[in-house]
UniProtKB/TrEMBL annotation:
Belongs to the ABC-4 integral membrane protein family. FtsX subfamily. Its main location: membrane. It is found in: Cell membrane. It comes from Trichococcus palustris. This is Cell division protein FtsX.
Amino acid sequence: MKFRTFGRHLRDALKSLVRNGWMSIASVSAVALTLLLVGSFTGILLNVNKLASDIENDVSVKVYIDLGTDQTNQDALKAALAAIPDVESITFSSRDEELNKIVGSYGDEFNLFGGDANPLYDAFVLNTNKPESTKAVAEAASQLEYVAKVEYGGATADKLFATIATIRTIGLVIILGLLLVAVFLISNTIRITIFSRSTEIEIMRLVGAKNAYIRGPFLIEGALIGFIGAVIPTVFLVFLYNFIFDVSGAYLAGTNFGLLNPNPFLIYITLLMMGIGIVIGSFGSVFSMRRFLKV
């Protein structure tokens, strides 16, 4: 398309948007509401997936050391644990540190068990490369010498991993379903707009305009409708997400959990919604015109 022709089509598209005011508003509203739904659910599901991954990665294996194990044997046990496949890191936690964790969670009355009265074990805390390897690492660690017991959550952790996998699958299906709904709603709304202007298209054909020339203004008009319809929900979601991110930060401070950082998450959401709006708007116009351009 030549630049001069593009400029003419752009002017015609803008005039058409103004001339068909109510239909343009209806189309933009349909695009905005549909993309608001798509953007909201996409943001929710991506953050659910992020939190699920945080929970998944927070699961660790705790290996309790036999009471009376000297430093030499502790070092040997640590080396043996490090040799287990998929062990990423090992952290030592003394029995006093274990007691402090209990005091912090359940109250100062547990300080009675301090000093020689402390019944807890020294422990090694193992993090794995893959959360799914937690069970295998725990089983391997339990076979080693100087190990009193091993904890990793057992059936609870297995159920957690299965639930997270289900959430991810369902989330992907919902997002794909919403995108298909968006395509259907936006294309049909634009089709109604074009149908109301079938006489205008017929006149252009009668005066000898080529199909490509006729499509031009409608292609640009559809892209503009998609763009404007995407801007409105995008601005709303940017302000809303920044607010939710700031509020959640206060509640999740000090934990290993958190929402996706607005930068670059909001950039990706903005590009996604703009792309969906423009592509569906422009090509929806072209596809909806086919019946009017048949010879």
